[in-house]
Amino acid sequence: MKSTVLIAIFSSVLMTAQWTTPFEKGNGNQSPNYEQMVKYYDELDRNFENISIENFGNDDNGEPIKVVVYSNTKDKKAPVVLINNGIHPGEPDGIDATMMLMRDLATGKIKFNHLRIAAIQCYNISGIVRRGQLSRAGQNGPEEYGFRGNARNYDLNRDFIKNDTENAKAFQEIFHAFRPIYFIDNHVSNGADYQYLFSYISTNKERLGKKLGSYFSQKMQPEILKNLEAKGIMTTPYVNIHEDTPDRGFAAFMDSPRYATGYTTLFNTLGTVVETHMLKPYKDRVRATYEYMVNALQYVENHTNEVKQLMEESLEDLQPSRQYAIQWIIDSTQFRNIDFKGFEAGRKPSEVSGKPRLFYDRQKPFTRKVKFYVDYEPTKMVTIPRFYVVPKSENRVISDLRRNKINMTSLPKDSVVTVEVYRITDFKTVKNPYEGHYLHYDTFAKKETKQMLLRKGDWLVSTQQNGVKYLLETLEPEAVDSFFNWNFFDAILSQKEYFSDYVFEDTAADLLKKNAALRTAFEMEKIVNQDLANNPNAQLDWVYKHSPYYEATVGLYPVVRIP
Fold first, then answer.
1. How many helices (H) and strands (E) does the chain have?
2. 60, 78, 122, 242: most buried by Cβ count inside 10 Å?
3. Helices in 189-317 by DSSP H: which ranges?
4. Number of Cβ within a 10 Å radius of residue 467
5. Which region, left, alpha or beta, applies to residue 159 given φ > 0 means left and ψ of -120 to 50 means alpha?
6. Right CATH number for 2-314 from 3.90.1150.10, 3.30.870.10, 1.10.3630.10, 3.40.630.10?
7. CB under 8 Å to 123, separation ≥6 — which residues?
């Protein structure tokens, strides 16, 4: 018996040696180029039945996005863990770690009998082929790496809702093809300096819902991290601190739907963003990423039924007429003290500017109680409707809904229905373009109930489906990453018809004579608004905008609700 075990172990070791990755063949500070990575996976696919490669859509440069799949089961419904690599190719740790992971799965060094594991080889292909040594200024290896932006200079980790890139469309196809129960997105952090090799972003517990969020934050993620630390890898929540020091305290990162784990959360998939520290040696960062993935996979394998049940139960809290939070803020009154392992920081004169600059002294490590703000509270709630109705004219929205496997029904005939409509009353817009958009924020919409003619061919969308959170986060205009805030509906914000002053003068005068209420409101407005009182053109425009001649569609949000 012992000899059989030894033979198996020896055989596995030989197989592993035979399939040494480009990273392992190098000096510990090198990452393969795109062609080397693809070739390695193609060879695994040709030689191992438990490895396959599937293409999904394209990068913006036209190259197919490749997903390598490990399966040691014939059960096509086996739960899936999805891994994303190279969304920022200047952070290639996950690329190398996953190549080793897939090799070890293929050769049987590690085995999972009840899971399928799907990994995007490199999501940002046009970014990885743009190799260099300088774009990640100050990063400690590897020697060469890719670039953050893709072929059209988009940061793909901001594109999961707006879908400006072919990459984002492909990701949604990948996600819905596999419907993973757990998602890992591999990155490398920058910002503050500290002792930790490994940091992480856990999907916000609040956005997962009470049951699923509590399970993930209190049981699943802590256990995975505990096992990781048992291997000598210290961990800390992601330190999103720039130009300041973490010993003052820091908050959990809010991964809104524009981000990868923010998007996957919309379908109740648990998610973790791995953030190894850019100042630590590359070899160590790759090892930490590898070990995290293995530990996470082991946990999911052992608790699959538990996770799946909680995912299903979480939908029960998303029924029509219940409340759903679409805006959040950190609760500054709630925090927990963590034993943070950092470096003493100080200020010294800059050799560039002569002004005080921040520096960390690695000769002075410390362990100190630091406030970690992990609780968010909602600042805006909406009541979940039974249905949304999307006009058939909104082709882009309809396309996005279909790609996300949203069930829709085409209205068979014109129908007058009682609906809730929004009118956009206020919003702010960024001064400079952000990821190809002049993003709106702090949006306010007034809701009113009215009878409306819905046209044949308009799309009736039930909220009683798996994608209910996706619908709420995209179709509610006040939601942080709504389609409205990403400029899908900007055409409704401007009027299309105008008037000739000399013609409308007589009409306006007649309106004021015949409508006492309008006249009173007009006179009161002039009293409180001196600019209006002193501007004849503005007065004429005021009457026009409060008259039946003014188009009712200005600011009228086209997607309506059926409560």
1. 18, 19
2. 122
3. 205-208, 210-215, 221-229, 260-265, 282-302, 304-314
4. 20
5. alpha
6. 3.40.630.10
7. 65, 84, 85, 86, 87, 156, 167, 171
Q: Which residue reads 């959170």 in tokens?
A: 469
| Phi, psi dihedrals of residue 272, rounded to the nearest 5° | -135, 135
What DSSP string describes 528-552? H-HHHHT-HHHHHHHHHHTSTTS-T
* Cα separations in angstroms, 165 against 73, 272, 412, 505: 34, 23, 34, 49
- Burial class of residue 540 in the structure, from the number of CB atoms within 10 Å of its CB (0-12 exposed, 13-18 middle, 19+ buried): middle
Signed CA dihedral, 323, 328, 329, 332: sign only: positive
CA distance linking residue 96 with residue 147, whole number of Å: 16
Hey, what are 559's tokens?
Answer: 């997607």
The per-residue DSSP string of 391-449 comes to -TT-HHHHHHHHHTT---EE-SS-EEEEEEEEEEEEEEE-SS-BTTB--EEEEEEEEEE
Give the pair of three-digit tokens for residue 305.
């039924």
Task: State both tokens at 189.
Answer: 């952090």
pTM equals 0.94
Per-residue pLDDT of the chain (563 residues; tens, 9 = 90+): 544 444 444 455 556 678 999 999 999 999 999 999 999 999 999 999 999 999 999 999 999 999 999 999 989 899 999 999 999 999 999 999 999 999 999 999 999 999 999 999 999 999 999 999 999 999 999 999 999 999 999 999 999 999 999 999 999 999 999 999 999 999 999 889 999 999 999 999 999 999 999 999 999 999 999 999 999 999 999 999 888 899 999 999 999 999 999 999 999 999 999 999 999 999 999 999 999 999 999 999 999 999 999 999 999 999 999 999 999 999 999 999 999 999 999 999 999 999 999 999 999 999 999 999 999 999 999 999 999 999 999 999 999 999 999 999 999 999 999 999 999 999 999 999 999 999 999 999 999 999 999 999 999 999 999 999 999 999 999 999 999 999 999 999 999 999 999 999 999 999 999 999 999 999 999 999 999 999 999 999 999 999 999 999 999 999 999 99
Asked whether the beta carbons of 177 and 454 are under 8 A apart, the reply is no
C-beta separation of 171 from 165 below 8 A: no
**Is cis: bond before 349, omega within 30 of 0?**
no
Length of the chain: 563
- DSSP secondary structure letters along 338-389: EEEEEEEEEEEE-TTTSSEEEEEEEEEEEEEEEEEE--EEEEEEEEPPSEEE
Domain boundaries, the chain: 2-314, 388-563
Q: Give the Cβ contact number of residue 153 at 10 Å.
A: 13
